[in-house]
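User: Please fill in residues for this 229-position structure.
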């Protein structure tokens, strides 16, 4: 059966939207230059390492994106209808790490080291590094399988023996995952070993946007925590 016009439009709508947002964000950067906010994983930043394009796409999908820059703000806004993204877990104050993920339905940690994991995700540990490159998901996690190949690698993680039955390790090298998903009851923890799939310069490549939207867009609200240095 030949595809209808509506089916063709649905198939191409997301890639076209991603391309349009990337062009618009790039145009803003070119026009305003250094007067615009810049910074890795900052959802208000339009430079290549920023994530404004992803934030715009999430808003288009109906997700309310709330940017916070302190742990107290993150704690106050997280809830059962919330994904909490922590951009730089190693910068989170030590005395708040254990409390940070208690209230959000899903917590997403970007490139955490073992010091941060000890407080935020004690069943996960960083065990090595791998080149950041396009990789196949190599796991059963629906978000990863739907996205397909994505720019992953960076830090590699493993989980404790007691957590193995609740864990998915994706985009692997030598058995270790650069994406880990761990569930506990109705709560979910996601650990990414690299920020690259989420940034403006790479969002339109391979399955990066699809992976980012599925990981961050599953709840009505996204609290995007960029710790202040």
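Assistant: Residues filled in for all 229 positions:
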């Amino acid at each position: 059966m030949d595809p209808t016009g509506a089916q063709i439009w649905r198939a191409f709508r997301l890639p076209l939207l991603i391309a349009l947002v990337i062009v618009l964000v790039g145009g803003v950067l070119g026009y305003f230059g250094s007067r615009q906010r810049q910074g890795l994983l900052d959802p208000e930043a339009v430079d290549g390492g920023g994530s404004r394009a992803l934030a715009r796409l999430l808003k288009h999908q109906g997700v309310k994106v709330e940017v916070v820059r302190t742990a107290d703000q993150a704690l106050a806004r997280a809830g059962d209808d919330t994904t909490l993204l922590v951009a730089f877990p190693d910068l989170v104050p030590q005395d708040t790490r254990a409390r940070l993920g208690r209230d959000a339905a899903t917590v997403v940690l970007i490139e955490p080291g073992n010091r941060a994991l000890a407080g935020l995700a004690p069943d996960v540990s960083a065990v090595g590094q791998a080149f950041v490159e396009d990789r196949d998901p190599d796991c059963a996690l629906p978000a990863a399988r739907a996205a397909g190949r994505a720019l992953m690698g960076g830090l590699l993680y493993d989980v404790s023996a007691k957590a193995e039955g609740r864990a998915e390790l994706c985009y692997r090298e030598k058995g270790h995952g650069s994406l880990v998903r761990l569930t506990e009851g109705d709560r979910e923890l996601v650990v990414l070993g690299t920020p690259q799939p989420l940034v403006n310069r790479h969002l339109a490549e391979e399955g990066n946007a699809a992976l980012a939207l599925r990981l961050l867009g599953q709840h009505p609200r996204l609290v995007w925590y960029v710790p202040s240095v």
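For context: The chain is about 30% helix and 30% strand.
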